[in-house]
Design brief:
Distance between the termini: 42 Å
Number of helices: 9
Helix content: 55-70%
Strand content: under 5%
Number of domains: 2
Radius of gyration: 22 Å
Length: 129
């Protein structure tokens, strides 16, 4: 079982795949509250329940899953996971100055467009872009 099986069951399936599985103990250990709450946080009608489970993370996994399974209304919910966009200027500053990501973010706020253009020219290795 993968984390998305649990999310799909909470959102649409409503079959309680933990207790219906061949090995409920194994199914309960594969349940990841963090990933489930993150997936549910993308929707306006489920974000409050995900936040409630984040606040009560000390509760047993089976109880968290049962709560979400029974309180969230059945509905098909689809969304893409948020991923950070690759910032070419950030990578360029990291390579040019040898900074860490955090230091490069600070430096990027300070550098102006002319300075970034100069760095871009100095790091140009040729070839087709």
């Amino acid at each position: 079982m993968n984390p998305f099986d649990f999310v799909n069951d909470i959102n649409f399936g409503k079959k309680d795949i933990i207790t219906d599985s061949d090995n409920p103990e194994l199914a309960e250990t594969t349940y990841s509250p963090f990933l489930t709450n993150r997936a549910l946080s993308y929707f306006p009608d489920t974000i409050q329940f995900a936040n409630m489970m984040n606040k009560n993370s000390h509760i047993d996994h089976m109880l968290q899953y049962s709560f979400l399974l029974n309180i969230i209304r059945k509905r098909k919910r689809f969304s893409k996971w948020f991923k950070n966009k690759e910032d070419n200027d950030l990578q360029m500053v990291i390579e040019y100055y040898g900074y860490s990501v955090n230091k490069a973010k600070v430096a990027l706020k300070i550098l102006n467009d002319d300075q970034l253009k100069t760095i871009r020219v100095k790091l140009n290795k040729g070839g087709v872009e």
